Amino acid sequence: MNRTVLVVDDSSSFRTVVKLALQKSGYEVIEAQDGRDALAKLEGRRINLVVCDINMPQMDGLTFVREMKGRDSHKFTPVIMLTTETQAAKKEEARAAGAKGWLTKPFQTAQLIEAVNKLCV
Question: Is residue 116 a contact partner of residue 25, using CB atoms and an 8 Å limit?
């Protein structure tokens, strides 16, 4: 059974790096450029996990996570925040929004895969 990960980041090159790492580990990957794009891509799809940046145009990652968790179809979908942010307040805000994991950029591929493997439902 293929598991699908939604990667949300406004940097296309960064999405590509994450996508290649996840695909090598057997995951299907859907890309979104910001929170608004990600919400549209959730529609009618089973997503096993979301990897999401915080700072993005249109809709930031925290707003996206709150919106996604407000939908019955995705309220239990695990989220890993992957961001340059390091402040404890941001981490707490992400946790309150429903994020289960936090990795900072630049990231170690092995660390990302380990987190995804652990949380992917």
Answer: yes
Whether the predicted model's global pTM rises above the 0.85 cut: yes
- Per-residue pLDDT of the chain (121 residues), as tens digits, is 589 999 999 999 999 999 999 999 999 999 999 999 999 999 989 999 999 999 999 999 999 999 999 999 999 999 999 999 999 999 999 999 999 999 999 999 999 999 999 998 6
CA distance 30 to 88: 29
Count of other CB atoms within 10 angstroms of residue 110: 9
| Cα–Cα dist 50/8, whole Å | 7
CB burial of residue 93 (10 Å; 0-12, 13-18, 19+): middle
